[in-house]
């Protein structure tokens, strides 16, 4: 994350998903200096992001004095003040924003999905995206598609054109396509470019990461690991994929997708391992 235009820093943001006493802490990546601490916050997994490099946004599954509801808090990075609060009718899990910062999407354990306009704070659409819990989400690099990952391994892709169509907000948006290749819960989604193609990668508790062509939904590649994969991240140059496993190891794969025509499988032997946790 980059800490605002004026601060011009790269920073690491950490937040607990269980204890509100830990809160959010922001560190300078270069010096290790603590830049900011926000107490009394516990964000759901995949429920924390930086908006326009100026705000920290977090979904909190329980709001004070309510039963069953949730909330989304927004803190400005450059000046200390109370957060902006948006209360939701049900607990929020993963949240994400478009690259241009115009829209925020949220997913709930019920399978319901929500889309807000950032500038007005208006809820543009609510729809039932899946019959199982939504675990993670990501927008495509050009903000034209929204991708959901679910607890049963289903991945669904939705067109933003249909989602932001206010005149048609009363009806259910059309699902662009879905995939059921994974055998367990989706734990992460990342997008990238491979030549002229848009790609996304999914990770799962089934011990695999899968590479997909975004527009067509075609399955291109499977990376197989010995343990459940709990998180993934791309190197900034999009040449390396880091896959964190449930046993604390991090597998590193070199990505070479540009010339892929047929689906193939890569085993753990083709990755090197960072053994950083026990």
UniProtKB/TrEMBL annotation:
PROSITE patterns: WD_REPEATS_2. GO terms for cellular component: nuclear pre-replicative complex; rixosome complex. Coiled coil: none annotated. WD repeats lie at residues 127-160, 179-222. GO terms for biological process: DNA-templated DNA replication; rRNA processing. Pfam families: WD40. Keywords: WD repeat. It comes from the Eukaryota. This is Protein ROOT INITIATION DEFECTIVE 3-like. It comes from Gossypium harknessii.
